[in-house]
Amino acid sequence: MKICVLPGDGIGREIVAQALRVLDKVAAKHGRSFETAEALIGGCAIDAVGVPLPADTVALCKDSDAVLLGAVGGPKWDTIDPAVRPEKGLLGIRKELKLFANLRPATLFKQLADACYLRPDIVARGLDVMVVRELTGGIYFGEPRFEGMKDGERFGSNTMCYHEHEIRRIARVAFEAARKRSGRVCSVDKANVLDVSRVWREVVIDEHAKNYKDIELTHMYVDNAAMQLVRDPSQFDVMVTGNLFGDILSDEAAAITGSIGMLPSASLGEANPGLYEPIHGSAPDIAGKDKANPLATILSVSMMLRHSFDMAVEADCIESAVQQALEQGYRTGDIMQPGCRLVGCVE
Ligand code: ATP
Ligand code: MG
User: Fold this and answer.
1) How far is CA 306 from CA 106, 274, 276, 281, 314, in A?
2) Counting CB atoms within 10 angstroms of each CB, which of 30, 154, 178, 295 has the fewest?
3) What rounded mean pLDDT belongs to the chain?
């Protein structure tokens, strides 16, 4: 079992190092062995070889069973040519590995409930939502697209497109995820207005009828879904949606938990290795200060074990260790609460 490790920039190296310590422990405890190999991506790759995604890195990722990434970017590279920005490394590797499904669980750890933005009575109902976002299609990549002059004034347009096969494969990812959770999928679209959404809805219904009758399927318009997510997130288990709606809803779902340093993500393709990374960025303001919260990356390792290696027991072991650490009162600065113990750098 081979893991390609891409620490990247900023806090990336610090948090990945902690996540690998956890991986070692869990491997030793359960008699598993993982081979890890490190490669460059983002700003550190630009500094070393002049490009954000060296060919060696792509080759190593493709030769691995999973990829663990820290974060890329930082002010040092903000002023360079946009074509070689660190972020291009991340977009590039997603494309190379054909990662069409982005899974973002938004979980509120009960020990951190005080830090949640939602009302206490809503928090009491629980918050454990998985947003499954289509990552390689939709309005981000649809043709035709245009930016320029039309009828004597500036004009821009993009096109939201989905083929049946793209909808079917993301729907399958959502149904499979729901089977391992509470068995409910809410498909989010705008079928009252958009033709592409009507195709989306019909294909999701068809895939459900053919292969996933055991799952409870509902549909919601995206505007209502955005409202319901803050009104009562406990009504959702898995939400599946297209690229643009998913971008917005997954950030919203993450934000309501109130802890950017806690949330992991997985990006999955059909056969290629999955890529696992925290949802936060390289946090240049705290990089190198031993202040970063490593839990989002540690939980990304747990997602990796669950999705790429089918090791549910080991994944559960990491999640309960995170729970225990929180219960025992260990905190980094971003989630510090009265009466808790600050770990890492104490000023
Ligand atoms: P990107 O464009 O790469 O997503 P960003 O500008 O959105 O980056 P982040 O790097 O995610 O921003 O950081 C946003 C804020 O959250 C910063 O103040 C940062 O210090 C803080 N932050 C991010 N990740 C962590 C973490 N793991 N632990 C503690 N604080 C964090
Ligand atoms: Mg960001």
Assistant:
1) 16, 11, 11, 23, 8
2) 154
3) 94
